[in-house]
Backbone:
């Protein structure tokens, strides 16, 4: 809907039914417990990673209605290391 | 009388309530809640017998998925997906944050109600501690500890300060994402276009929308 006004959008989804039914232009699907789309409370590195991944879809998704699956496992990732690998303080 | 399973489950505070939280917070008719517990007990007995405990995990996941799909009986579908290509680098883009997780400014704004198409205008400089949440259809306890869990405004402020983004919009927007019936057309025809016009006026390039 915002796209009709010239604003690109990316949605972070916690399930697949919503994006499959509503078909937002760009979706990041995260496999998190329901109610924590951007990550655990206080986990700055995780939250930042999810935000960056979602915003990256603005640049990388080329076909409307694309759902990208976030690869991270809920509690078992070292997000500080993941961010360091990406080049640290982007 | 409908009950919330979390009233029956009574987990000790030492356990972080993270998995299957949708099952805990939905209000179910008593016979359905009974059916849930009986089925869970049966699954546990069978799993104890054959050692396959994935049966219990599947039972809980299936229930949760079913509840999620049921909460919006008048859900709308779209056939086509409109599209505005994003054509500038993120480091030059003006980004707006939106959430359907029910965030609002505690001291100066009214909370939402259930099935509420209204939105809240939240200045992008609002301190995280000024924000509150109203939502009865997801477990809000984690978002109450840290609003960034549903509304990562501090993470976006950091990115803007570092130059990873061009800028943040002047205002972010909160919605309460559970709406049914007549409120759906109202959202589509009145509310969303109002928000869109504000974003356009603020020269926003893209919106990051968190859902719950």
Residues:
């Amino acid at each position: 809907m915002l796209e009709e006004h010239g604003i690109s959008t990316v949605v972070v989804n916690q399930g697949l039914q919503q994006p499959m039914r509503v078909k937002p232009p760009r979706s990041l699907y995260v496999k998190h417990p329901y109610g924590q789309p951007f990550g655990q409370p206080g986990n700055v590195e995780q939250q930042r990673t999810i935000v960056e991944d979602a915003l990256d879809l603005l640049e990388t998704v080329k076909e409307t209605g694309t759902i990208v699956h976030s690869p991270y496992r809920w509690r078992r990732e070292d997000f500080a290391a993941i961010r360091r690998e990406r080049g640290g303080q982007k | 009388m409908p009950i919330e399973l979390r009233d029956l489950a009574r987990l000790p505070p030492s356990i972080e309530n993270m998995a299957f939280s949708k099952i805990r917070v939905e209000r179910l008719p008593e016979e359905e809640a009974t059916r849930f517990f009986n089925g869970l007990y049966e699954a546990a007995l069978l799993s104890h017998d054959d050692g396959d405990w994935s049966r219990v995990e599947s039972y809980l996941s299936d229930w949760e998925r079913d509840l999620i799909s049921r909460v919006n009986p008048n859900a709308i579908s779209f056939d086509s997906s409109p599209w505005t290509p994003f054509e500038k680098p993120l480091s030059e883009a003006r980004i707006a944050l939106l959430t359907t997780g029910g965030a609002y400014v505690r001291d100066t704004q009214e909370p939402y109600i259930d099935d509420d198409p209204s939105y809240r205008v939240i200045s992008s400089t609002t301190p995280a501690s000024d924000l509150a949440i109203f939502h009865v259809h997801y477990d809000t306890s984690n978002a109450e500890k840290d609003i960034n869990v549903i509304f990562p405004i501090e993470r976006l402020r950091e990115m803007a300060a570092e130059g990873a983004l061009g800028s943040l919009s002047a205002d972010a927007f909160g919605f309460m994402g559970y709406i049914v019936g007549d409120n759906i057309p109202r959202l589509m025809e009145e509310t969303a276009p109002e928000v869109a016009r504000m974003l356009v006026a603020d020269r926003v390039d893209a919106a990051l929308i968190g859902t719950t």
Q: What stands out?
A: Chain A has one domain: 3-86.
